[in-house]
Amino acid sequence: MPPVSNIDIAQLEQLRKDGPVTLLDVRTDAEAARGIIAGAKHIPLNVLPARYAELDPKAVTVVYCASGGRSAQASAWLADKGFVHVHNLQGGVTAWARSGLVLTPPT
């Protein structure tokens, strides 16, 4: 199983500058309805086992939730399923908002 790295907002921004990044929001539907990071794909943690095939296991994937706990679980699970470039966003959308960054309505 490849290691999962924990990254912060600055590291996420650098990854995004370096190339395409899949952002995965694993919060509940109600949480995501309040806003997601622009461009993120929303798959709640509880349905990830049924829907992870929608994701590219070779893509650089950054998983986030509200604070980093559920996304850490999801990241480890995805790595166990063969995803090779998985990162957990420390602090989740809470850290995102504290950094002064905006959330957008889900699509």
Structure description:
The protein has helices spanning 9-18, 29-33, 48-51, 69-80, 92-98; strands at 5-7, 22-25, 41-42, 60-64, 85-89. The protein is α/β, with parallel strands linked by helices and 107 residues long. The protein has one domain (5-98): 3-Layer(aba) Sandwich (Oxidized Rhodanese, domain 1). Strands 1-5-4-2-3 form a five-stranded parallel β-sheet. The mean pLDDT is 95.
TL;DR of this structure?
By secondary structure, the protein is of the alpha/beta class.
Q: What do we call the CATH homologous superfamily?
A: Rhodanese-like domain
Report low-confidence residues grouped into runs of 5 or more: none
Count of strand segments? 5
Distance between the termini: 32 Å
The shape, in one word, is globular
Structural class call reads alpha/beta
**Which CATH class applies here?**
Alpha Beta
Q: At the third CATH level, what is the topology name?
A: Oxidized Rhodanese, domain 1
Q: How many domains is the backbone divided into? A: 1
Amount of helix: 25-40%
What order do the strands of the largest sheet run in, or round the barrel if closed? Answer: 1-5-4-2-3
CATH architecture, by name, is: 3-Layer(aba) Sandwich
Q: What order do the SSEs take from the amino end to the carboxyl end, as H and E? A: EHEHEHEHEH
Counted by DSSP, the helix tally is 5
Q: Which radius of gyration do the C-alpha atoms yield?
A: 12 Å
Q: What does the oligomeric state look like here?
A: single chain
Q: Provide the residue-averaged pLDDT.
A: 95
Classify the beta-strand content into a percent band.
15-25%
Largest sheet: 5 strands, parallel
